[in-house]
Amino acid sequence: REEPSMVLLGKQAIDDDCNQTGQMLAALLRWPQGTFASKVELGDGSVAVTREVDGGLETVSLKLPAVVTTDLRLNEPRYATLPNIMKAKKKPMQALTPEELGVDVTPILKVLKVAEPPKRKGGVMVSSVDELVDKLKNEAGVL
After folding, report:
1. pLDDT value at position 2?
2. How far apart are CA 71 and CA 10, in angstroms?
């Protein structure tokens, strides 16, 4: 029913630190994406996203609609007050089905395989630096 011109998301999940929701959403929608935004400026039909990179700041310009993921420097968080929480609880919430919104929820991603990583071999204690170097050179083949 609504046609958003920008979807704003956090940078990463707190449970697994994966940093994939914004990128996957942009790919599924086929929208451009700006990641790790520390500054967002809306223009006429576009958005400028500034992000921190190793060498300083980088600004990318995206055509709208776009997906933007945020960095912690984007804003100062606001905390809800108790009166506003109580007001929000009294607001009606309309439940809609995907069909009412014209959304196809047929899965388009397929999990091919889920497996545990192989068990690690036990470590070996060495008694000297010479023995360590010998094992790294002759057994592990890394030196």
Report:
1. 80
2. 7
